[in-house]
Amino acid sequence: MTSEPHNQRLIRIYSLPRSGHNAFACWMAAGMKEKPVHLSFVRDYADPLKAFSRPHPREHFAPLPARHAVCQRHLQATSREVMMQSMDQILLSPLTPELQKANRDAVGGAARTTEIIFLRDPYNAFASLFWWGMTHDAWYKRDWRFLQNVWREHAEEMAGLTHYLGDPIFVNYNVWHRAESYRKCMADRLGIENNIAAKERVPSHAGGSSWDQRKYDKRASAMQTDTRWRKVKEFGFYRGLVKGPKIASLARKLFPREPEVLLAADEFEGKQ
Predict the structure, then answer these.
(1) Are 33 and 168 a contacting pair, CB within 8 Å?
(2) Whose CA is closest to 206, among 13, 53, 10, 44?
(3) Which long-range contacts (CB under 8 A, 24 or more apart) does 156-160 make?
(4) Cα dist from 173 to 12, 23, 64, 250, whole Å
(5) Segment (H or E) for 4
């Protein structure tokens, strides 16, 4: 006899670091009837319980034991309505159906799975990632080529050029951040309430914004997230991250109504 799955719904969110996915996860959780379990910064796709962080603010998520080994046993032994996994450094191309099943099995199975690609435009995403690294003495420790490939694979999946995840839900961060109508539509599609107050919070997890930390908490929509690229465009290292026609082509296709993105695409399309 087949045992019941531990998760009625498993939600996997794929993104790039410093792209606003923590804020998105909090907004989603605030719109759910029951607090979900959230595994943040999952590093091992096949074994998500091996290494993850506990999210903040905790009022949106179910509490988890502080000790990692105890937490692992707790999650393996209990059932829940929703588990969310946030993965900000995962390539899509290796995710075979067998590996996706291994991920589900590792957390006790799931009655249904929702895959979400949460994509920010490349120019502002890499500006925030670069600035965070610069201000935290960590930029040289990152595998930047790998992160470029992560963004490209996520963008190609959103553009319909690949189909690694089957039928995922695509969330455009730029539009989600600024447009209430978009958030309402996305909430309907995700089957949650559109919690306006939660959208305006800046989570303390990972230090908040790369630029403003938590200065804009409770008024997050006022953050100028579309012009971050202008602040670092003269750094040669940053230009190397975002230059080239392929990035520009994907940016124009996926963010066609974002003036700052189109300006940046013109700026860096052939810049060396």
Answers:
(1) no
(2) 53
(3) 156/250, 157/92, 157/117, 158/117, 158/119, 158/254, 159/250, 159/253, 159/254
(4) 16, 10, 28, 15
(5) none
Query: Taking a C-beta distance cutoff of 8 angstroms, is the pair 203, 228 a contact?
Result: no
Cβ distance 80 to 6 under 8 Å? yes
- Both tokens assigned to 13: 């969110």
- Structure pTM? 0.91
Chain centre to alpha carbon of residue 79? 25
Mean pLDDT of the chain: 88
CA-to-CA dists, residue 36 to 8, 59, 60, 156, 168, angstroms: 11, 11, 8, 29, 20
The residue behind tokens 């730029």 is 174
Could you give all domains of the chain from N- to C-terminal order, each with its CATH number? 7-122+146-223 (3.40.50)
| pLDDT beneath 70: ranges in the chain | 1-2, 55-58, 136-141, 202, 204-220, 222, 270-272
Q: What is the pLDDT of residue 100?
A: 95
